[in-house]
Write a structure and sequence with these properties.
The chain is mostly helical. It has 7 helices and 2 strands.
Length: 184
């Protein structure tokens, strides 16, 4: 993700993304915000972090995003490498959850939004198979009827992708994304 952020071309950030409600600046701000929230979740230092808005708003991005976001993403990765990040309870977006659940959610966020960012900016995307498998498993669980209310809050309707398609396409389909999306 940090490499993709650094690779965003210079110029206006008002281009489209696979997230219908977000332009590129909004997507970058959402990535910035989730990075801060999930770093706090990993370290269990969530006091005062609950005020972070979950939705992207490009007007909050700031002028130093290109240098600050890769550093913050590095801190996120380091925080989740600690075994204690995956244990006990934590909080994200005001919701209490097990550390392991938060870790799976942030992995999914990074996998999917890295694709969004790559596709929006014309960069290559190459998610590792293990991360895709974890994201696919979690997203598949969310298709169960008992999770429909939560799923409908965070994703669009499932985009049908056949099982023979690459795993990344199946992951994207489960989030409501069309794997063939392009900005033009």
């Amino acid at each position: 993700m940090a490499t993709l952020v650094e690779g965003v071309p210079d110029g206006p950030l008002d281009g489209p993304t696979p997230c219908p409600a977000y332009d590129l600046a909004d997507l970058l701000d959402h990535i910035r915000t989730l990075t801060l929230a999930f770093t706090a979740a990993a370290t269990k230092e969530t006091e005062g972090i609950g005020h972070l808005p979950p939705s992207g708003d490009g007007s909050r991005l700031g002028d130093d995003w290109r240098s600050q976001m890769p550093q913050a993403l590095g801190a996120l990765a380091a925080a989740w490498r600690a075994p204690e990040a995956w244990t006990g309870m934590t909080q994200v977006g005001g919701a209490d959850m097990p550390g392991g659940a938060a870790g799976v959610i942030v992995l999914d966020e990074l996998v999917v939004h890295a694709w969004d960012l790559a596709r929006s900016t014309g960069q290559d995307y190459d998610a590792d198979p293990a991360s895709l498998a974890v994201a696919h498993g979690w997203l598949t669980e969310l298709t169960a009827p008992e999770h429909s209310a939560m799923r409908d809050l965070i994703f669009g309707p499932v985009f049908d992708v056949v099982d023979e398609e690459p795993l990344v396409d199946r992951v994207l389909g489960l989030t409501g994304r069309d794997p063939g999306w392009s900005p033009s």
